[in-house]
Design brief:
This protein is of the alpha/beta class. The strands form two sheets. Strands 8-7-6-9-10-11-12 form a seven-stranded parallel sheet, with helices on both faces. A five-stranded parallel sheet has the order 2-1-3-4-5, with helices on one face. It is elongated, with a radius of gyration of 21 Å. It starts with a strand and ends in a 22-residue tail after the last helix. The model has no long low-confidence stretch (mean pLDDT 95).
Length: 303
Amino acid sequence: MDVYFNFSADDHVREIAKTVLNGFDLYWYPDYHDAEAQVIKDKYVLGKRTRMIQTISAGVDHIDITGIPDDVVICSNAGAYSISVAEHAFALLLAHAKNIIENNELMKAGIFRQSPTTLLYGKSFGIIGYGGIGRRVAYLAKAFGMKVLTYTRSKVDENVDETIDTMADLFRRSDFILISVPLTDKTRGIINRQLLPNAKRNATIINVARADVVSKPDMVEFLRERPDVWYLTDVWWDEPHITDTDLKNLILSPHVAGGMSGEIMDIAFQLAFENVRNFFEGHPKNIVRKDEYRIKSERFLGI
């Protein structure tokens, strides 16, 4: 059993791999080895012996999936960043609900102006996509006393109060809406001009997925027409070239929900390496559906 790691790694990452993959033969970039399994960030090298490709990232839209043969399994690292991303989603949500950004700017300008805030308790939180991030957000939402609704093809758990049949109905019934689906051919642009008008008055939409899950012209036009609805997002179209952000009902962060710290990456490396072992033991997780990734993203930022 041998593994090739097709990315630069320091001694700390190599030690994690040695611990998790004890007993495996490990080979590291740039010294290529035609191994049965390959761990990558964005690029892979197909060898005659390649059977499995494991990504460090949760998303795989930046990888050329069409170049991977049918008999080679590719697995994402879905769930590896769920805790960090869920915390960030709530950071955005609380910053808006409690007027943190506005009040901070006023106070620093010497202006003492009190304004009403929004209570999370008792509100409906609709989650589009119930993978690792959706599950973690639901767990936190229940701690705030919120009602959790979800639109998903995945199995749900005890934190979900109700599964909704259509996204339109979820928009109609949710005070807060989380977008947490991977970017695939099927999900590209699913948040669009047909769906957005279903949003409740004073609704808040939070995106911690990929920017292109949402149609940019449709969302920008909608936010201009509906100043009561807020869009809180960690992703923006054409990153890092940021345009069209002159909207009052918008809060942005620069694609950092997945975390930039070593402690988060340690978890990601650990889980990716564990899934390589899972593959050789016959039960890999997060197998990518290749037929949903015919369109490759031009750039990769974040996780």
